[in-house]
Amino acid sequence: MKFIATDCIWLDFSKCETTANLFMVNKKQFLAQPIPTEAQKLTGKSLVEYVNQRQPFFKAEYSPNAKQRMKSLMKMEYLGEHRNRERDEFVLMKEPIFNGTIPESFDSREVWKNCPSIDYIRDQSNCGSCWAVSAASTMSDRICVQSGGKVKKILSDTDIVSCCGNACGDGCEGGYHTEAWAYVKRYGVCSGGRFEEPGVCKPYAFHPCGFHKDQKYYGMCPKRLFATPACKKYCQYGYGKRYKRDKVYVKWTYSILNQEDAIQEMLMRKGPVQAIFIVYEDFSYYKNGIYVHTAGQEAGAHAVKLVGWGVENGTKYWTVANSWNTDWGEDGYFRIIRGVNHCRFEEFMVTGDFLL
């Protein structure tokens, strides 16, 4: 049967697979429906099959690497800001200050083509460093946009995950995305790049694990997460620049709390922003389309970079850069339903300005 995703969707509440048991409901009703207990317990290939049968928004594809990816997710305690962080550290953007019309679609990659970092997909490997990886990715974009394309540094996720320490959380076991920004505001961050990349201060500490299309194979992922790398206050051999002189510093930090138009306005003015959300197992099997949680258990928290938005067949979505390499999802990106705080995605976003 061919699904047509308009303002309504198809939903099957029965165990029968015949189309006679399918009927249409409003999308908001679909999102409001509790996930059946049986569906929450599904995993692996059974989960993928169920997801593809029960909704028209996105396609799931089974991969044996999915369970490994879920190991690198953070504990739910890292969803949101540090409980000891005073809110006045971040300027709270409550209302949009943009006087123009918000377009139906927006893509930072197209608007700021002179900032290559925006389309730079990272690979966090077998380390729960998404909080630092997505922060460094967002910061790289922000300093480029703010400088009018003059500063094209890829900033180091390893510098943040290794040197922020207990203030940020627990390194490869997870951390607070807000504290990554607070750390760079106080201590700065140096240049970075991919594993073993020359010509930068601190490339990423861990190799991509497993097989990736058209990429060098370094080995399979270890059963346990990598240990948090030691903080080294110097650049790699041959870089030719001192660690402290290579650093850039955040001047102001901003947070946007669950307000769609304020998030859009911030994206249009300042470029990509950092987000954090709840991940369920069905997300790890995402292949393409607009993600809507359909089945599987809660797996943890995950931090990512929001780059734009759009509408497809009447369904609003956010466009997001992940950190699971370019052969996951839509060339390293995913789209998630917009405007309903799905999986708490719109709940707490952050960005900042740099000292130039």
UniProtKB/TrEMBL annotation:
An MF annotation (GO) of this entry: cysteine-type peptidase activity
Record's protein name: Pept_C1 domain-containing protein
Superkingdom field: Eukaryota
Keyword RNA-binding recorded: no
UniProt function note: Expression of the protease correlates with blood-feeding and suggests a role for the protease in blood digestion.
Keywords per UniProt: Disulfide bond, Glycoprotein, Hydrolase, Protease, Signal, Thiol protease, Zymogen
Family to which this protein belongs: Belongs to the peptidase C1 family.
Single Gene Ontology BP annotation: proteolysis
Pfam families, per database record: Peptidase_C1
Listed InterPro entries: Papain-like_cys_pep_sf, Pept_asp_AS, Pept_cys_AS, Pept_his_AS, Peptidase_C1A, Peptidase_C1A_C
CDD domains given in the database record: Peptidase_C1A_CathepsinB
Domain Peptidase C1A papain C-terminal: 102-353
Keyword Glycoprotein belongs to the record: yes
